[in-house]
């Protein structure tokens, strides 16, 4: 059973064909897809809709994916959203820069559907488990305080 069915995925890419390929891979698996064609729109959608994960292209006009990710990670409401970069760039500098910007993973184009699905599922699971752990720690701290 996939606990991530119904998870909100924001796909950000300025190329309509890339958006369609990713949407066609994720929607049949039960993910709810939102799309943005540019960084500014992505930031607005992320702040409003609070997606569970973001798939983000690096090479976009006006604002590249690195800047989008950095801005997402600066906001308290969106900083915990995992960002997976999906890009044509496959050099080490781009990879390092993506992680420095706050990305959790990096997939190079052309990508395989199964790879995208597994990485999305993995990072959604990590995110969910992290939230659960933080909640349990908070409850434990409250119980300790109550007993003291």
Q: What can be said about this structure in brief?
A:
The protein has helices at residues 16-26, 39-49, 65-74, 92-101, 113-147; strands at residues 8-12, 32-36, 53-56, 83-87, 105-108. By secondary structure, the chain is an alpha/beta fold.
Q: What can you see in these coordinates?
A:
- With 148 residues, the chain is of the alpha/beta class.
- Helix content is 52%, strand content 16%.
- The protein is globular and about 60 Å long.
- The termini are far apart.
- The mean pLDDT is 94.
Portion in beta strands: 15-25%
Number of E strands = 5
Instruction: Give Rg in angstroms.
Output: 16 Å
Name the helicity range. Answer: 40-55%
Q: So how many helices?
A: 5
Q: Describe the strand arrangement of the main beta sheet, using strand numbers.
A: 2-1-3-4-5
Mean pLDDT: 94
What's the story with the biggest beta sheet? Answer: 5 strands, parallel
Residue windows where pLDDT falls under 50 for at least 5 positions: none
Shape: globular
| Euclidean distance between termini CA atoms | 41 Å
SS content category: alpha/beta
SSE sequence, one letter per element: EHEHEHEHEH
Q: What does the oligomeric state look like here?
A: single chain
